[in-house]
Design a protein that fits this description.
mainly alpha; 199 residues; 8 helices; disordered C terminus
């Protein structure tokens, strides 16, 4: 973890902003594509269905994953900039976007491992087509992917807190407060709309 955080500093403090922002774009596109394939494979495990046309399967997940990755990247970067600015942060829009990208590497890693496990389960797992959702979630491999995802998420939160602290010159406590605000902000934004729809 320490070596990864040190690399994070180098990634954020290069003089050529365009160079590391390009790397950030690549990271989030790859994350989006891997996540799309992971989710699709898990849905196929749940439904015990075949992939259908391979070319359509690949193109659909690559395009949708890349688009969703980039959209998440820019929206999350903008939201992090607003939240950190609200608490007195001075980091640029670019650096906030790069924080989002670089801190997603643990999630990308665990998502890729999870995808490989799902592929192996689908190909060699001999899963019964009559297996219930509960039985699938109790499968040892699926349980392992749950803990793996939790580990990736916790690692991402730690790295995000550290990087927010570094680029905004925050104390670690203000960085954590910024991260909490970043996580809770969408809830405050969308809750009124959900309430209106319910009423």
């Amino acid at each position: 973890m320490n070596s990864y955080i040190q690399k994070s500093d180098k990634f954020l403090y290069k003089n050529d902003i365009e160079a590391y922002e390009l790397k950030a774009n690549v990271l989030v596109i790859v994350l989006g594509i891997v996540s799309s394939f992971r989710n699709e494979y898990f849905e196929n495990l749940l439904a015990s269905r075949t992939m259908g046309n391979l070319s359509n399967f690949l193109v659909t997940n690559i395009v949708s994953g890349a688009v969703s990755g980039l959209l998440t990247f820019f929206i999350s970067g903008a939201l992090l900039k607003v939240c950190s600015g609200f608490l007195g942060g001075k980091a640029s829009w670019s650096k906030n976007r790069v924080i989002i990208a670089w801190s997603s590497i643990p999630i990308l890693t665990t998502s890729f491992i999870t995808l490989i496990i799902y592929i192996l389960l689908k190909t060699f797992g001999s899963l019964s087509e009559y297996m219930t959702v509960v039985e699938l979630f109790e499968h040892p491999a699926v349980i392992f992917t749950k803990y793996l995802s939790i580990f990736g998420l916790i690692s991402s939160v730690i790295v995000t807190s550290y990087l927010v602290s570094r680029v905004n010159k925050f104390s670690i406590f203000r960085a954590i407060a910024c991260l909490i605000l970043f996580i809770c902000a969408p809830l405050f934004l969308f809750t009124p709309f959900i309430f209106i729809n319910i009423v």
